[in-house]
Amino acid sequence: MMTNPARTALVLLVFALFGLQDTEEITCKNEEGDAVDWFIFYKLPKRLGKEHADSGREYLYLDSTMRTWRKGQHLVNSNRSMLARTLEPLYEANISQSNNTAYLIYNDGVPKSTNYSKKYGHTKGLLVWNRIKGFWLIHSVPRFPQIPEDGYDYPSSGERYGQSGICITFKYNQYEVIDSQLLVLQPNIYSCSIPDVFHWELIHIPNLCNKTSSFTIPSRHITDREVGKTEIEKKEKEEGLQPSVTQFLVPYESSCRQPQKHLIHIQLGR
User: Fold this and answer.
1) Would you say residue 229 lies in a domain?
2) 257-270 pLDDT tens trace
3) 3-state secondary structure of 70
4) How far apart are CA 86 and CA 109, in angstroms?
5) The whole model's pTM is what?
């Protein structure tokens, strides 16, 4: 006959498996809300003149299903932009108080603050994941995003200059590596939720969330062998994409008296 501890473990395993079946995959998404392995966005700089009412909120993007850059059909502050689509699980988890979804948001320029942290890393981004998949969005936008309770919006502080970011979808078994990488970054975390179910595999993230982590940097780090070649590199090789994928001529507000036209040359780094 099965002992009580063994029976309890079996029951917990069964419930966990059923829970995974009902859990949706959390991934990077395009403007249609479809899952993509990765995307890169470039938020165009603000242009002068009343005729450019939407200027500073337009963006270009490239994802794992495309060969060339496209201009977003929606503005970056729209709930239908690819950033808003991707961040939907963050707000859903906050509303439902889900124990199956974790998130961690960091920025050296915290929303609703005029000060920049010098104690933590000069880095900005967020992670949202469950025990199946998740995404890591790394970006340059100050004071973004808002805390989950405030819903999605794009800050005016990110409109004047060009901004960029990359979102990558990861399987849950890769988050153990990300766990150590975040300790190296020492990000300024201003909103997070790490349910107990994730504490078994992830050592540093819960401590970073609680601001109790030491600054001892582990020797482990992300390597090509652990993570594998990125989908971007694969796509370049398989489809013959050039590192320099496109060029855009956009005027932006410079330090000169008159706005100048500058060539923005977007490249995929190798």
Assistant:
1) no
2) 444 443 344 444 33
3) strand
4) 21
5) 0.74
